[in-house]
Amino acid sequence: MTNHFIDMTNADVVMICGSNAAENHPIAMRWIRKTRERGAVVICVDPRYTRTAAFADVYCKLRSGTDIAFVNGMINYALQNDRIHREYVRQYTNASFLISPNYDFQNGLFSGYDAAKRSYDRSLWQYELDGDGIPKRDMTLEHPRCVFQLMKKFYERYDLETSCRITGAPMEDYRRTCEIFTSTWAPDRVGTWLYAMGTTQHTHGTQNIRSYSTLQLLLGNVGMAGGGVNALRGESNVQGSTDMGLLFNVLPGYLKAPAKGMESLQQYLDDATPKSKDPLSANWWQNYPKYIVSLLKAYWGEHATPANDFAYSHLPKTSGNHSFISLFEAMHAGKMRGLFCFGQNPAVGGPNSGKEREALGKLEWLVCVDLFETDTSVFWKRPGTDPSGIATEVFLLPAAASMEKEGSVVSSGRWVQWRYKAVDPPEEARTDSRIVSDLVRRMKEAYKAGGTFPDPILHLTWDYGDEPEPDIHRVAKEMNGRFLRDAVVNEKEFKAGQQVPGFAVLTSDGSTSCGSWIYAGSYTDAGNMSARRNKEDAPNGLGLYPKWAWCWPVNRRILYNRASCDPSGRPWDPKRWVIRWNPQLAEGKGGWEGDVPDGPWPPEAKLPFIMRPEGLACLFANSLVDGPFPEHYEPLESPVRNLMSGQRCSPVIKIWEPDKIGDSSRYPIVATTYRVSEHWQAGAMTRNTPWLVELVPDVFVELSTDLAKRKGIRNGDWVLVETARGSMRARALVTQRFEPFLIDGQLVDQIGIPWHWGFAGLATGDSANLLTPHVGDANTMIPEYKAFLCSLRKSGEVA
Amino acid sequence: MAMKAMLIDAMRCIGCRGCQVACKTWNGRKAEKTEFFSGPGYQNPGDLSAETLTLITYNEVQVNGRFDWVFGKKQCMHCNTPACAAACPVGALKKLESGPVIYQKHRCIGCRYCMLACPFEIPRFEYDSANPYITKCTMCADRLETGGVPACSKVCPTGAIAFGDRDEMIREAQHRINQNPSGYYHEIYGLEEAGGTCVLHISNVPFDKLGHRTDVPKHAVNKDTEQAMEAIPIVMLGLAALLGGIYMLRTRTVHHESDAPRADG
Q1: How far is B106 from chain A (nearest CA, A)?
Q2: Which residue ranges form the domains of chain A, and what is each CATH number?
Q3: Nearest-by-Cβ selection for B60 from A33, A696, A735
Q4: Model confidence pLDDT, tens digit, residues A738-795
Q5: How far are the Cα atoms of A28, A165, A721, A759, B262 from residue A770, in angstroms, in the given order?
Q6: HSE-CB of A369 using CA atoms within 13 angstroms
Q7: CB–CB contact B34 A731 (8 Å)
Q8: Using an 8 Å Cβ cutoff, are A755 and A349 in contact?
């Protein structure tokens, strides 16, 4: 999230698109309800009339997988009707930048496409630079090759009619949605955009988000109170997990995981550290070397020295894409020996889970760490399987639940909130950190006898006390970082052993260590900032509560807040000011007040988007592999042609299973998967809780009364859903909350299936992921759970 | 203590059913065996029962020509003049000054008159038990005693179940309706029903669409009950003798499980 949950109370318009907040983030509705009762409008965009739609003032439906057509139409509406915050766009985005003539877009493809490699040469999508290497700008936004003009040309193809033909949105609802949301172009009106996995789990999921950010930037809603682009994260503390480098391609603090070929620290830094020649650009990532060296010092301590590149060679190098689908493809091909599953249940949660269950059987060993016996831990005795044919050795370690251990939980709004242990774990259940710690200690012992490459293990810092249970406060302190020797940084003296007060004092000479640079400041010599529970608000009264817990980075509650003021430091919206320049502060030298600003510089000194080398937000960028603008493509499986171009689905996605793609002649119905309030993810916790099983005991398929009538299906009947991957049985929930879509004159049915069920536990049922394809987003590889093709028919009763 | 009340606002409810689970957790009620859904939408169980003291209903309705999905909450209305208490021959049901209508199971003789008397059809009987009692929502009277609020109100993420002085809740309900006159249906259910109740409902749809009875008289129903009872004094005498006998038997068994971990008020 750029903003945070309480900040939703500051919005005039709340757009919930790609999220079913009422069902999956009920607490968010506490704040949305408050702003609605103050007169804000809540819009819900979803293929299905959900509990969120029921709460919203405006509902507009769209067919799964067509977000870009929907939002690009809104962008076009804003551009055509001049409903944009023009000064914001001119000053704070790259709308004025001139783009190289090498950029082009024809029939669904950007320039530089290599069909054989299914990839783009992104170097063609560049800024035009002046003699000093600074991007050329046209502040009138009139130059035919400035981003603004290229945008107008690109987006004008998405007129209201075209967007409705693709998405199936009713024109009246769509026009109303466009009008209400773009009303926030006015500097004193603001709209927030909430999304979740309904947005990301597509082959063009990242571009979906880019379309949202583009619109929010045009409306001047980024950095504002009540604005921003806000991901409602899918699990409690998944924000903390990604902050800590959970993904294969990042290290803690979103530093890049080094790739094969980056043999030295310098090579790695050359690749990772962005450069800018613009004196107005803060280019904060120029500090990259300080963060990676401090991380290496946290990992390997005294064994990380300037002479050995701070033990950079100890870091594993990626040799390609190691994301979820790739791992299971490799496992299925017999290329993996073992797997640890901490609180994860791929036998239910993984796409094409039938294949993933097979893949588990090709492992030598599998360790599941969980609260319950999960479907994954008993994959070897799933229905229809002969356990004697599976050689995988499975270990199930009982884990402590979140209330049975102390530590931090990070909310979607980046708030790091400390929790205390409420009760002891039952029996032999242990905390995840204890389990990992025991493993590390035994590995260190084992490597003393030698091994292929023992140093990274033997020298790894493991300084969390002498007890078997690691001291979680020491872990938190390590994340914050500390001085390893006496040093002078920015003219201030620090002593060895002192906690760093913030990342501004981290160094690249080895005098500091820091486990995650964005957490610097979270556990200082003043104590554990995330344990603070002061309910006093900031003077701007926006619900920032700066002394409640702690938020990364530097306790800044609203990201990009410098853009909430005009260049002279005056808030665009004085009644909801986030920060403002006060010339009276600091004995007349002036200073910022309100939230922690994006950098300490006075007005006009630096450009506002300090994490970008150009210093401005990007309406055009070459950072994504599938294009500098978001273009509509159909999902991998779709019942209709792409009305925008001859390019049916994303031209750069990796097709893992060409023989497992269903076509609409056999599978004419669009399907999507989702969660319900009453169950949690792959169900291990909730399907074993009788009170929740009572509420939603059986797997079900939601379908329209219209489709049910045509298929002769009544409410409660058992139905069979089939895709090119597999089939499942479920109970039919016939409802008016789903309706067929009119797509380019053709009637298209859509159904939806919650994916919580599996064969283990108290409440069992077929998993919806038996149906979903092994295909992922072009950039992130997140699976396309949200749009695929199926057939549906009435089925006999099953026991 | 001033008379308390709950204000349930269908406009705020998101149908998450945290209340249903919190109710079972606090009151130690068992999960029921359900299959698929037992009512419209996601409704489960199908109705209130001995184990289910509150229930969210899922109502697919038309509002001003547009489809909508509205969530209602069924539970004891905690009448100001409760017909159940008036009908109870042994005083097992009792209206507290603080609002709740509580159930004192050690007095109950299992006659089930309360079930017949209740105009909202709320009390349930533990038919499946060898030693059955009446069950119903008690407004978590045990929590109120220590300054708490009902469990369902405590967990509600959107403030759809407000709790406070009845006068204050009525003012709050009127305030919300006045603030959004085109959104709300212009009545407070429970203001006058059965002579007024300590559970008040407001909604964007007429109350019958949420499954509430709209044929309940606007005066205290126990007057009807009393009149009906006066009309058949002989039957009552006979019954009294019979029930007295049952009561003696019941009181004997009750002593054996006085330490049962229930929170029946």
Answers
A1: 28
A2: 6-236 (3.40.228.10), 249-318+482-519 (no CATH), 324-410+415-458 (3.40.50.740), 658-794 (2.40.40.20)
A3: A735
A4: 999 999 999 999 999 999 999 999 999 999 999 999 999 999 999 999 999 999 999 9
A5: 31, 31, 10, 12, 44
A6: 17
A7: no
A8: yes
